Amino acid sequence: MKKNNITIVLAILFTGIFSGCTALVPDSMLNAIHQDMDKNHDGYVDYNEYLKSGSDEDFAEAAKEEGMTVEEYQKWEFNRADADRNGKVTAQELIDLFRK
Length: 100
Ligand SMILES: [Ca+2]
Ligand SMILES: [Ca+2]
Fold this sequence. Notes:
The chain has 6 helices and 2 strands, in the order ααβαααβα. It has 100 residues and is mainly alpha-helical. The protein has a single domain, classed as Recoverin, domain 1 (Orthogonal Bundle), CATH 1.10.238. The chain is globular. α2 (27-37) packs across α6 (91-99). Strands 1-2 form a two-stranded antiparallel ribbon. The site of one calcium ion has 7 residues, from β1.
């Protein structure tokens, strides 16, 4: 159940990115999403944790919209979030992503 809720929240957020209204999403919500994605609670979301944040259908649909393969899309999106390219996304990097 919880995974589904987060998937819905993420879907809303990603819709927000494209409509340009993500500045309205509070840091507290982004922190909560980051915590939920951080399955081993080490303070970072790594690539494997990111892959578990969405269903296969979600990724397939998003990839199709961007005209990429699912794997291309996943790498592209993770790299967008991982601003300093250290393979780990911090809560701050996630917040920054939504503030761009
Ligand atoms: Ca982690
Ligand atoms: Ca990083």
